[in-house]
């Protein structure tokens, strides 16, 4: 699976303002920003992302997904590194 494919699947199942993905095709690290995360704990947020992937996690198309999840306000307050 490519990063673009994974991004498309997540975005189709969850309203996202921002998605960043890094990985090797099976092991991924994601940063996901969604207004749906507002008022939700980290466990719920991660479970919500896993639900968008459905069988992709069970069939090993995505072997591992680590993630950081933010609301838009949390994301806006994150320090950014300038290039």
TrEMBL record:
Cited InterPro entries: BolA, BolA-like_sf, BolA/IbaG_stress_morph_reg
Domain of life from the UniProt record: Bacteria
One Pfam family linked to the record: BolA
Family label: Belongs to the BolA/IbaG family.
Protein name per its UniProtKB record: BolA family protein
Native source species: Variovorax dokdonensis
